[in-house]
Design brief:
By secondary structure, the chain is of the alpha/beta class. It is 49% helix and 14% strand. The chain has a four-stranded parallel beta sheet, sandwiched between helices. Helix 2 runs parallel beside helix 3. The longest helix has 19 residues. The chain is globular, with a radius of gyration of 15 Å.
């Protein structure tokens, strides 16, 4: 919880998300670049996760736009730290590249409302559904790995569509 949350929550703690992003950018990515023929520019580098992993991915996407050019934000914990992420995104957001956002209606009314609010905010910031934003609200989907796994192929197809078309 500490590592995947960019903001401190009075009840749950957390707030060490910057350290996690530093690890990804300063330690993990150089190792990958050294061992594999990876394209490491932002256009070819993404971040993604679910639950608090979705929260840190949303944060990382906007906090480090020169590093992460696309993001998979699945069932993000927008509620964390009194929804600070919504206010932060509003002030930090720069419309760039692709963002995939999903939520299951089985996750609860407040969780769905938070995801819808984030979607509307992103659209006001210049994101356009189908171009650089994909919002999926899966009917009945719960907050668990099988639901996120079921949505992952569509997520990857959207975020990596230029590569998918090249492979066909």
């Amino acid at each position: 919880l500490d590592e995947y949350t960019p903001f401190h929550d009075a009840k749950h703690g957390g707030g060490d998300g910057e350290r996690y992003l530093d690890f990804l950018v300063e330690t993990l990515q150089p190792l990958i670049d050294a061992d594999f023929a990876a394209l490491s520019d932002a256009e070819n580098t993404g971040i993604g996760g679910s639950w608090v992993g979705g929260l840190i991915s949303l944060y990382g996407f906007f906090a480090r736009p020169k590093v992460f050019g696309f993001a998979a934000v699945m069932s993000p914990s927008i509620w964390f730290a009194d929804r600070t992420s919504l206010r932060w995104v509003w002030h930090a957001a720069e419309c760039h590249s692709r963002l995939y956002l999903d939520v299951g209606t089985g996750e609860g009314r407040k969780t769905v409302a938070d995801a819808r609010r984030l979607k509307r905010m992103l659209q006001r910031l210049g994101y356009t559904e189908g171009r650089n934003l994909r919002y999926v609200e899966e009917e009945g989907a719960q907050h668990h790995e099988p639901a996120w796994g079921a949505g992952f192929p569509a997520c990857i197809a959207f975020l990596l569509r230029d590569y998918v078309e090249c492979v066909r």
